[in-house]
């Protein structure tokens, strides 16, 4: 038994991966390529994506929404693991998503991924205007932190009842609990976490999981 979540040092982190991570070779190649890039910290941790894969399989996900695609690691792993899954991916960067397309194509999943280049909120607004309310089984949000609250609002419209909305980086390296850190992203995430906590009763189930850089999972009621 334990009264609190365990912290992971490098040795324990590696042990966790050694005894739990099952990562396809195609995903490993993309992850290693991404980790050699200057913005490598933008990739989701493999154990976190493995948890997402499990959660989305449990709800028999067929349509997914990703806000913040980067080099495509998460979308690659999810579409490879869930054969019926089709994804809409939102990102601003053609440079990064060209890498994603290359690996999606090599893994034969590109035809199940609809990449929307442009500001994510514009894409979400367009989907709502086009009548996609309740059309998605899940959303995964890993983009600009100041936009998270607005993205959640849109996803509460786009994701079906009983679907999942998941958010990365909600612990922000521990900065959200540091009263001396009042940077823009930290303040945005701190406000978001409090907003979700206050709004959860009666609207959605909420769990903040200390995996990766902090993962919030919401299960939408209505």
């Amino acid at each position: 038994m334990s009264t609190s979540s365990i912290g992971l040092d490098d040795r324990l982190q590696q042990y966790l991966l050694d005894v739990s991570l099952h990562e396809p070779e195609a995903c490993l190649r993309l992850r290693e390529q991404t980790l050699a890039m200057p913005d490598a910290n933008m990739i989701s941790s493999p154990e976190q994506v493995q948890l997402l894969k499990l959660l989305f399989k449990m709800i028999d996900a067929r349509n997914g929404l990703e806000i913040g695609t980067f080099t495509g690691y998460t979308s690659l792993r999810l579409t490879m693991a869930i054969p019926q899954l089709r994804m809409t991916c939102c990102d601003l960067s053609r440079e990064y998503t060209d890498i994603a397309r290359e690996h999606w194509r090599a893994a034969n999943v590109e035809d199940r991924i609809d990449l929307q280049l442009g500001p994510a909120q514009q894409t979400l607004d367009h989907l709502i205007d086009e009548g996609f309310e309740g059309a998605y089984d899940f959303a995964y949000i890993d983009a600009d932190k100041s936009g998270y609250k607005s993205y959640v609002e849109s996803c509460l419209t786009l994701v079906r009842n009983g679907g999942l909305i998941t958010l990365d980086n909600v612990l922000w390296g521990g900065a959200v609990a540091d009263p001396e850190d009042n940077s823009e992203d930290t303040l945005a995430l701190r406000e978001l976490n409090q907003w979700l906590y206050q709004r959860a009763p009666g609207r959605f189930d909420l769990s903040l999981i200390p995996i990766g850089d902090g993962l919030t999972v919401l299960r939408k009621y209505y």
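Strands lie at 63-67, 86-91, 113-117, 136-141, 159-168, 204-209, 215-220. The mean pLDDT is 96.
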